[in-house]
Design goal:
Distance between the termini: 26 Å
Shape: globular
Number of helices: 10
Oligomer: single chain
Strand content: 25-35%
CATH superfamily of the largest domain: Spore Coat Polysaccharide Biosynthesis Protein SpsA, Chain A
Radius of gyration: 23 Å
CATH topology of the largest domain: Spore Coat Polysaccharide Biosynthesis Protein SpsA, Chain A
CATH architecture of the largest domain: Alpha-Beta Complex
Length: 443
């Protein structure tokens, strides 16, 4: 069996050595051939010069940035494998990542795609916060004082970020955990200050707040604001976190990472399962099924194109299998920072197009109404008097407007699918179930 690995990149020079070296170290099952194609779309960081040292890696070069879908689709005529693996440039595969997926493709013709278990590439130091019952504390998102703060992860007891004094903060309760990344020197920006947890205030109690950093004895804070230095992170015991164990689709037609931020153990997400969708960061697809589905829909700029492809594969009768023994380390958001202006714009745009393609008429209407409300809130926050700032500040509104030119094509595809009796909204409703080889599976 031949496997074609397609790696799109745009100014990802810092990630490519690790990604390509990991592929070189991959343990190929007997009779397996691997070809690697890097699609360089608009890089100006020396990517081309770097790739020349990685023969026999083939490259396809474009002068401008194409976006995720078009960059992957550009390899369609170049790759020759029986299986196509779409791999993000900020990933590093484990040596045995291919073994079980290729077995699944060989043994079961119903399997159209297999997704790896993705772990965050960073190792994390666990910081636990202990409070009196009913109390809550406000902590700053600022730990490193730089770009690495984007890599902080939080347990389920931590609230969504909210602004305070121009910086994001979180409200935490007893037992909440903050997972602080151990910097990867060749990938991460330098910290601007010594890493420290900043407890800004305490609510519902007079204290104290106890902060446990890994295995060290807890530090006790009785006055606020208070700071707990985290020390030399690389010397502390570390944990791994799940980044993706398959993709969910909720009742609002929104996709997301199953298990994201959960502490990884060998028994967590350890079962092969049929799932609604798989993450495009490390996605293996049977070539015949991929060609029949039409590869990635290119009306997406970035986000949701992998979920869209997965639903098309399911509409054709295929199974999507989450394969936990196929392990891949993922830096995550190596190209687009999470919750950055570009992230908000592209998620808004792509999620509207996705729901318009697969959602029920009621869901489409609810989605449009919700996004219009969000746009009105954004516009009122910026203020019409500051019209010169509006386009640059109202990121969700901009994404909504940018979706309009592609909407006609998406609705046309939806109508065509209905004419051919291909289910649309039904594809959004699928629960995870154990994968049973050669057995009848609900699709």
């Amino acid at each position: 069996m031949k496997v074609s690995v397609v790696i799109p990149t745009s100014n990802g020079r810092r990630f490519l050595p690790g990604c390509l070296e990991a592929l070189r170290r991959a343990e190929l099952p007997a009779g397996t051939e691997l070809e690697t194609v890097v699609v360089d779309n608009g890089s100006t960081d020396g990517t081309r010069e770097l790739l020349s040292a990685f023969a026999p890696v083939r490259t396809i070069v474009f002068p401008n940035r194409l976006g995720f879908a078009r960059a992957n689709n550009a390899a369609r005529r170049a790759v020759t494998g029986d299986v196509v693996c779409f791999l993000n440039n900020d990933t590093e595969v484990e040596p045995g990542w291919l073994k079980r997926p290729l077995e699944l493709f060989a043994l079961d013709a119903h399997v159209h795609a297999v997704g790896s278990k993705l772990l965050f590439m960073h190792r994390y130091v666990e910081v636990r916060i202990s409070l009196e019952a009913g109390a809550s504390a406000v902590i700053s998102h600022r730990v490193f004082g730089g770009g690495l703060d984007d890599k902080l992860r939080f347990s389920s007891g931590v609230g969504l970020p909210f602004p305070m004094a121009g910086q994001p903060h979180h409200r935490v309760r007893d037992g909440s955990a903050v997972y602080v990344p151990i910097p990867i020197p060749e990938l991460d920006p330098p910290a601007e200050s010594v890493p420290a947890l900043r407890v800004v205030s305490l609510e519902g109690s007079s204290g104290p707040v106890r902060v446990s950093v890994s295995a060290r004895p807890p530090s006790t804070l009785t006055r606020f604001p208070g700071i707990v230095p985290l020390g030399d992170l690389p010397t502390l015991p570390a944990v791994r976190l799940v980044q993706n164990a398959g993709t969910f689709i909720n009742a609002r037609g929104e996709g997301g990472d199953v298990g994201s931020g959960e502490l990884h153990t060998p028994s967590l997400y350890a079962q092969e399962e049929v799932v609604p969708a798989l993450c495009g960061a490390a996605l293996l697809v049977r070539r015949t099924a991929l060609d029949a589905a039409g590869w990635f829909p290119d009306y997406y700029t970035v986000y949701y194109e992998d979920v869209d492809l997965c639903l098309r594969l399911r509409a054709a009768g295929g199974l999507l299998v989450f394969c936990p023994s196929s392990m891949v380390n993922h830096y995550h958001t190596g190209t687009n920072r999470e919750w950055s202006p570009g992230f908000i714009e592209n998620v808004t745009r792509s999620s509207l197009l996705f729901v318009s393609r697969f959602g029920s008429p009621r869901l489409v209407g609810e989605t449009v109404a919700r996004k219009l409300r969000d746009a009105r809130t954004e516009i009122s926050h910026v203020g019409l008097r500051n019209a010169h700032r509006l386009w640059g500040s109202a990121h969700g509104t901009r994404g909504l407007l940018k979706a309009l030119p592609a909407l006609g094509r998406v609705l046309g595809e939806r109508a065509s699918a209905q004419l051919h009796r291909t289910p649309t909204s039904e594809l959004l409703a699928l629960s995870r179930a154990p994968y049973l080889p050669h057995a009848s599976q609900e699709r």
